[in-house]
Structure formats: C-alpha cells, structure tokens
# Entry
Amino acid sequence: MSKASIIGAYNTEFGAFVKKDKATGLMTDTKTYYDLLVEAGRGAIADAGLEAKDIDAIYVGSCSPGSFINQEHVAPLAAEIDPALRFKPMTRCECACASSSVALYDAVYAVEAGRARHVLVIGVEKMNLLPTPQMTHVLACCSHWPTEGSRGMSFPMLFAEYAKGYQAHYKISNEELEKMLWTAGALCYKNGAENPLAHVQNGPTTVEAIMKLNELDARGKCKNMMIAAPLRLHDCSLVTDGAAALVITQTANVSNRNRAVEIAGIGHSVERLAENVRPNMYDLMAGKNAVAKAFKEAGISAADIDLAEVHDCFTINQILSTEALGLSADGRGGYDYLEGRFTRDDKVAINLSGGLKSKGHPVGATGASMHALIYKQLIGEPIGVKARQADIGVAFNVGGSAVTNCVTVLRKL
# Structure
C-alpha cells in the first residue's frame, strides 16, 4: 500500500479578525469564517500546482462553528472555493482542538484506499465574535459536561490539574515549576516574533520579561494574572481566528518530489473524556500511546526527529508533549527547557512557528496548521524561523484535556 504525501499547503494569517464598538460592545466581523475557509482552500490547491477540478474530496475540520458563528453543516462551504468543486464529496470532522488532524487522517484513509486521488483538507475556526464568557462556555462543551463543564471547570482549570499532578509526582518546587513554564512560553514567543502569520509577534521573549509582567502596577493590577493556579495568563494560548489547508495524494502519484512530504506514520489514541476517571494526571498516557503507534509505522525513534510542533494550549502541555514524544525523559522536560534545549539551534527544534502560544489557536484549524508549517519547513520554504535540520518533523495535536491525541510523522521525500 502506497502511503500518502502532502503536496501543497496554505496557512492564513492568524489573529482576532473583529472590530469591537467599545460603547455598545457590538462585534463586527472583518474576516469571516467563510472568507478564511475559502482563502485556505484556494491557497493549498494553488500551492499543490493543481486546479480545483483535480480535487476528488474535501474534509473540513472545525470544532464548534454552530456555537461560534451560528453555522452548522460547514463542509459544503468548500464548494465556494471554486465552481469545479460542486458535487464533490465534502465531510466535516469534529474532535475539539484536534478536529483538522482527524480530518487529515480521514483524508489519508481515503487516499490509501484508492477512493480518491487528490484530497483537500481544511481546518478553520472563528472564535472572536463571542464575548469571553460565551467563548469559554463553548470550549467547556468539549470537556466532560456532567463532571467538568457544568460545574464551571474551564480548560485552564483542567490543564492546571495536569500541572499540579506533574509538580506533585516529580516533587518540583513552586519556583522551579514557574520558571519551567515561563521558559517554554518565552521560547514560543521568541519564535513567533519571526512568523509573519502569527497572532502575537511582540510577546515577552525572555523569562525576565514574563516575570516583570507578574508585578502589580500602580493601579494594583497584574498583566500576567493567575487564571487557574499555577497557570497564569501567559501560560494560556490565544483566542484566535484562522484557517489552514493541505492537499494530499498517494506518494506513488507524486510528480514533484522536491515539494512532497510523506505522511510516514500516524498515531490516533483517545483518552477517557473525564479527568476524574484517569489513573494519573502527571503524563499524557494516551499521547504516549499515539507516539508509539506513529513512530512504529514510520520506523523512527525520537532520536530521528529534527523538529516538532507540539500542542502548547497551555505551557504545561508543551512540557508534557515533549516528554510524550521521548525528546525528554519523564519528569525532565521542564529542566531541559531551563537548560536551553529545543531552540532553533538545538538538534530538535520545538514550535518554530511560535506554537499555539504565539502563532495562535483557532481550535479547528490548529492541527492542519501544524502540518502545514512542518511541511513548509521540510520542503525548504519555511514561514518564519528556519530549522537547522529538516528531514523529519512530528506534529502532536491534542483535542480536549489531552483526550484526542494525534501524532503524525512527516518525512521529506
């Protein structure tokens, strides 16, 4: 069986594409969900050197458009990319923040089965039209509602449980944990400052700069307030609008190997939805299972990886993901960040895009964006920071509170 390869990709600019009337609170859309989806789809098809008529199927990853923009049944919107896509099969996939990675995997299955030759995958989300309380509620619906969302548990609170569990299990002091989290966040801000598509390009790029934000100003306010101890504002990813898209085909069909990247292995593993039924809260057990599946299929180990995009929805998950990939030993990820590892100059570079922390996190688009940015690195067309070495990259995308775990090994042909 021939594996699938990515032959084109596109990432829109990420940001908050709304204008708010301070007097009335009214939000005006400046770049719609529909605009973002069409831009990404057209861009990926063009990047692949194809025409719309060459696309056999479309998979759209989107988390909660019905709640964010009052639009369900979003897959048919892909028909607006080009009239030639009318009558093509179009399917929406939803797995919280991993929606577009799951869309990619469904596309891979279609290509590998021979049902489709060229498949377009789009990830898209528009989050900023809702006020913060409503947006938080929509996301909370991706938790286990009876035991978490209905009881006021937000996602910062859910990942704070991982931070507390990690700290207790490995006996890490409060001061050490804070510096670990700040170091991971600062690394992403530093990389994101060079990504022209990133939501935040002027974040605090050093631990010292983040520490400064923890101080109270003259009005007694803190710019890095505690959100859910031990996680502060700058430990949390952004509320972002954006889209990304990919075109895949069987590797055997690739005509230009210089612009193709093989999907060498995938691992899709799902944890129990409610945190209170999991056996531990100090590592990503399902994530490790997904890593093992992807690495086995690709025939690689952690030592073969040149770069990784990991799901830093919260800084603690960046550390946990680094360990799950085997790039750090269990309990050592935070210390490795403190020691200066995983920068652009390291053997393995992490989140050269700026990660969710700086690039942004339009939840349904995040998985496709991770794959798109790695693809661009591997074909030598990096967006932003260039990897020191780029032959094998890994995307580690998470949905919910580390529930849906999608790990993809991408290899340059």
